[in-house]
Specification:
10 strands, 4-stranded antiparallel β-sheet, single chain
Length: 258
């Protein structure tokens, strides 16, 4: 079945996520989980339920058209279209989606918010690690070295994260491997996990580590956190914000379109 692109009017296959003619997102595509918010009001409730800091701190404005720099947001315009936007550091606005499909629009901002939460938690973790380095650095380094040797010997010492091996991009999570499918902009479970463990565990120079993935972030998929592609799983359970953490919007990449 074909659907009509809201931007250029072309009729395209409903299984496509983006229009092959103009590249715009297709409003008829359902990429949402049954457990996630599908309306702006539901997204507001999700935000509050996860104890996130005030919107002035996170810079995520739900239901508001904020025009100042450094802001993500979603709102309905005068004709009833949902607009998902990002205001860059220089004040330039990048429109992620504009159209009548509220569920799709909400999902776009929801996925970006979840990715930002993950980045902020990693940022906090890094700051805590820096503080720990001030005491017992030599002892800690020795312990970590011993742990790394043991992990390599056991074949399970690959940290979670992005890797590139034989010109293919992978993500490791809890010793499970996932492969990026660039043609369909999605992630699939990799069959060659054992071979990857063997190769990357012996990678003393760190040549396989890969941190510049530019396609769909693995953190935006249903595999992330619960290690499953089951849409009914509790795959946002790790999005709760701790009051002991600090949110720094200065660590956000405000120059990118999204």
């Amino acid at each position: 079945m074909n659907v009509k692109c809201d931007y250029c009017g072309s009729m395209v296959d409903e299984t496509s996520q983006n229009c092959p003619i103009c590249g715009a997102p297709l409003s008829g595509v359902n990429r949402t989980s049954s457990e996630q918010p599908k309306t702006i009001e539901e997204l507001k409730a999700w935000y509050a339920a996860h104890n996130l800091p005030p919107e002035e701190i996170t810079r995520f404005f739900i239901g508001k058209n904020i025009t100042e720099p450094k802001a993500f947001g979603i709102y309905k315009n005068d004709v009833g279209d949902c607009v998902v936007y990002k205001n860059k550091a220089n004040g330039e606005r990048a429109i992620r989606y504009q159209g009548a499909d509220e569920s799709y629009a909400v999902n776009e901002l929801y996925q970006r918010l979840r990715a930002e939460i993950s980045d902020q938690k990693a940022h906090n973790s890094g700051k805590k690690d820096d503080k720990k380095k001030h005491w017992g650095c030599g002892i800690i380094t020795a312990i970590l070295a011993i742990m790394a040797i043991v992990a390599i010997a056991n074949g399970d010492g690959v940290p979670d994260g992005y890797y590139k091996y034989n010109n293919t991009e992978y993500y490791n999570q809890n010793d499970k491997w996932y492969q990026y499918d660039a043609q369909n902009n999605t992630w699939l479970e990799a069959a060659e996990g054992a071979a990857l463990n063997e190769a990357i565990n012996s990678d003393n120079a760190g040549q396989y580590s890969y941190n510049n993935h530019e396609g769909m972030r693995f953190e935006e998929t249903n595999w992330y956190d619960n290690g499953s592609s089951d849409d009914d799983g509790d795959w946002d359970s790790d999005d709760n914000w701790s009051s002991s953490d600090s949110w720094s919007s200065s660590s956000t990449d405000w120059d990118d379109d999204w």
